[in-house]
Prior knowledge:
Structural class: alpha/beta
Strand content: 15-25%
Strand order of the largest sheet: 4-3-2-1-10-11
Shape: globular
Helix content: 25-40%
Number of helices: 7
Amino acid sequence: MNSKKIYFASDVHLGAPGIKNHREHEIRFVNWLDSIKRDAAEIYLMGDIFDFWFEYKKAVPRGFTRFLGKLSEITDSGIPVHFFTGNHDIWVFDYLSSECGVVVHREPVIKQLEGKTFFLAHGDGLGNYDRHYNFLKSVFTNRFAQWLFSWIHPNLGIGLADFWSGKSRDKNNKIYGSHYLGDDKEWSVLYAKDVLKKQAIDYFIFGHRHVARKVSVGPESELIFLGDWIQHFSYAVIENNRVELKYFNSEV
């Protein structure tokens, strides 16, 4: 039996203004990465790992050295690390792939893992359930808009991004909170059911909602909300041909 496991985590939000102790926050996640590297076949980081990230031609945001170093150590050892861009770190370009060796994904991915079909995505902007956000995302991913932003000095650009990030988080918390809204109100669940009308998927793995929960979306299909590393410190792992949702309890 293969003893290697496949791990998934999302919504760490490194550098988020509301986090009281940024060093402890980063170290906790790095400790988790350190704890799983011994039996990891692959690691999937499913978006919003950074609260904000923008790569200028000659500069990247300050900080995150422990995390970036651990990423490099893991990929140097031969373990593939997949990084899905989220709505907060949508402006990851080639730095993480060239310097840290990760595989960057900007769109959902459907692939076979351990003999099962997985639909992997951060979870933002799926389908047409939030047209306002889908429009904003189309602007943020526009190459010309990115080029214009790159001309803003990092001190100002990152300051503006932090402000926008905080406003966006406050709005989402007010509307959705971090609690499950119900099968008929969660857009990710509705989207997964739409996908299942066209093709068979065993597992959907999503972040974004800061909800740690397994939801049945079909007779033989499950959606796993990965939770976050602000309140839940949760992750998913494939072991014994099942996806289990777990929690990391290490103290910093």
